[in-house]
Amino acid sequence: MKGIILAGGTGSRLHPITLAVSKQLLPVGDKPMIYYPLSVLMLADIQDILVISTPHDLPQFRRLLGDGSDLGLRISYAEQPKPNGIAEAFVIGADHIGDDSVALVLGDNIFHGHSFSDLLRKERENVDGCLLFGYAVHDPERYGVGETDGNGRLVSIEEKPVRPRSNRAITGLYFYAADVVGMAAGLRPSARGELEITDLNRAYMESGRARLVEFGRGFAWLDTGTPESLLQAAQYVRTLEERQGVRIACVEEVALRMGFIGPEECHRLGARLGNSEYGRYVMAIAEEFAAASG
Length: 294
Prior knowledge:
One of its GO terms (molecular function) is glucose-1-phosphate thymidylyltransferase activity. Keywords: Magnesium, Metal-binding, Nucleotidyltransferase, Transferase. Its cofactor is Mg(2+). It comes from Streptomyces showdoensis. The structure is a single chain. The chain is of the alpha/beta class. The chain has a single domain (about 1-245), classed as Spore Coat Polysaccharide Biosynthesis Protein SpsA, Chain A (Alpha-Beta Complex), CATH 3.90.550.10. It contains 11 helices and 13 strands. The protein has helices at about 35-45, 60-65, 90, 95, 115-125, 180-185, 195-205, 225-245, 250-255, 265-270, 275-294; strands at about 1-5, 25-30, 30, 50-55, 75-80, 100-105, 110, 130-135, 145-150, 155-160, 170-175, 210-215, 220-225. Strand 9 and strand 10 form a beta hairpin. Helix 10 packs antiparallel against helix 11 (about 275-294). The longest helix has 18 residues, at about 225-245.
């Protein structure tokens, strides 16, 4: 399975903060926002990842992430000059996807929960069409909402419905079979000229090939698209990290625990971060891992 992070757009809801810097490079806690979706793909055991962003912002992502080899990854980059819809990511990333299935995660979404990696690795083996991830919310009228039958098959998808048929919001994480490239290319642009992800998902649903997996209680899904939600996400992350003594979306630790790199490589990555609390944490994790490995 290949991975795509869509980190484009103008971040207009965060203006003036995002007039000079990409939204996905803003800090959430002590790390850039893009670390969170990147860690999601890594937890799904995906190592070949395409980052899509604007021509203006791509050099900054390259500077931050490089080619991914330090983390045992292969990271490449592609431009989306204008925000022409989420589904355009599959047209832009056609060569990257090739004949593989693909996971798309939005660059401003944060996911956190127990056994998340186990769930992702299990579901990536069962992609026959479109697999969406749902999250129960108290205000479904603000989201795209999915309704399923008793077997988890999608039977309806509505975008910001006045009278929602369920309370399961569709999150910014999507798994697709390899035919998504052709499906996306065949979409009719919306009135705004965009290739809408809801239209793509509905096409899979109408062919009986769309499922919805619901994140259960105790799981967190955060969208960081507004100043308020950005602050709430930072507070959530900081509270958990301080109480549990672990770091959420520490990509160096994820790479180590997934077996992408070894403890020596992980320790070097921490040392490169200088005298920062984050760097010291990475080095400590590497030392603990090496000691436990004997």
